[in-house]
Structure to design on (370 residues):
């Protein structure tokens, strides 16, 4: 039987929109959004994903306030109509495509509830297609667009109402789709005997008053760059296309004895070989492997089958040694403050570094900054 999306001229294969062109079990389609008040004390990260070849839809909402990280996870069977991104107490409404998105999560019993609307400050921008192979097999093949903006609405954390004022609250969002590891773990096979030596990743979308800055970097253990982008995005009314900023270089500043960054210095290049230096400060952070379900989260993973109508909440003490010990082995999203000349920007500083990374001087998984 056809599904509602079949009414629209959006097909790219002789298939109903009910079905994926790819039979890869790791096919996914996802929303990611974050919001903060620039203080570093409150940081919300939330998202929703569908996994058509696993028959699963799920969502999460994670808020860190002080030393407590609240996480809500919601999962259900994926229905035929994917035009409505909603399940249980969670929904996303695309109010105006590529400009305004409303997100609602009604789970106060788990310490998190909100009704918030994101307003894009600048046009959404395509990022490069992200392709990553492991032992010759595609581990990740995805497309994504990103946007910076402001937030309005209400947020309740552990019973406390926090007004979300767009003059103060900022954030970033992205939409991505393609192939990436999801669901229950596959048999390790060769990767079990020959694991990757290391993983290094940096993602910096920032909102300045007159432009957005997007920087993406991924490197192999020996420093080989496998993902690379730096651009500025200007207001739609300016008529200016995105400006590419050359081959970005970066110095990540790690806390002594850790791999937790305190900030970074970005070296970008405008036309005419004019250098653009951006100082990034890392403020409060959310560990993506403590509740949100990203790689290395032992409690839940995106796309896992947890049954119909599953809702779960968890509270993490971010000073607990057991929690602290797992944080460095996943991606960490930081509230980011950026300074470029006399301009100040706010957004996301996302970073991961585990295992070997020669440019940073890390020899193995136990290496830390001096």
């Amino acid at each position: 039987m056809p599904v509602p999306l079949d009414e629209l001229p959006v097909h790219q294969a002789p298939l109903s929109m009910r079905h994926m062109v790819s039979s890869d079990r790791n096919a996914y389609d996802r929303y990611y959004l974050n919001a903060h008040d620039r203080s570093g004390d409150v940081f919300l990260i939330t998202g929703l994903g569908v996994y058509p070849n696993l028959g699963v839809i799920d969502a999460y909402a994670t808020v860190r306030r002080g030393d407590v990280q609240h996480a809500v996870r919601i999962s259900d069977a994926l229905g035929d109509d994917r035009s409505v991104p909603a399940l249980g107490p969670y929904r996303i409404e695309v109010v105006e495509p590529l400009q305004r998105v409303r997100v609602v999560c009604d789970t106060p019993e788990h310490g998190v509830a909100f009704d918030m609307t994101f307003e894009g400050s600048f046009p959404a921008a395509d990022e490069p297609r992200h392709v990553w192979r492991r032992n010759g097999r595609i581990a990740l093949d995805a497309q994504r667009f990103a946007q910076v903006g402001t937030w309005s609405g209400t947020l309740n954390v552990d019973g406390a109402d926090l007004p979300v004022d767009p003059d103060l609250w900022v954030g970033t969002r992205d939409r991505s789709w393609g192939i990436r590891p999801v669901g229950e773990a596959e048999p390790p096979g060769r990767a079990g005997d020959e694991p990757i030596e290391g993983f290094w990743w940096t993602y910096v979308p920032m909102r300045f008053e007159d432009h957005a800055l997007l920087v993406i970097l991924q490197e192999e253990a020996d420093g080989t760059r496998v993902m690379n982008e730096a651009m500025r995005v200007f207001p739609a009314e300016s008529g200016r296309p995105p400006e590419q900023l050359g081959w970005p270089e970066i110095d990540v500043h790690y806390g002594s004895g850790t791999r937790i960054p305190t900030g970074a210095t970005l070296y970008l290049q405008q036309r005419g070989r004019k250098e653009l230096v951006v100082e990034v400060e890392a403020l409060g952070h959310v560990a993506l492997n403590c509740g949100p379900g990203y790689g290395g989260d032992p409690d839940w993973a995106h796309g896992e089958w947890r049954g119909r109508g599953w809702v779960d909440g968890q509270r993490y003490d971010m000073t607990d040694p057991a929690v602290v010990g797992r944080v460095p082995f996943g991606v960490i999203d930081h509230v980011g403050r950026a300074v470029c000349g006399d301009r100040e920007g706010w957004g996301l500083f996302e970073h991961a570094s585990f295992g070997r990374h020669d440019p940073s001087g890390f020899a193995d998984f136990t290496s830390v900054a001096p």
Summary: The two ends are 61 Å apart (CA to CA). The longest helix spans residues 190-193. Residues 27-182+194-360 form a domain with the AttH-like fold fold (CATH 2.40.370.10).
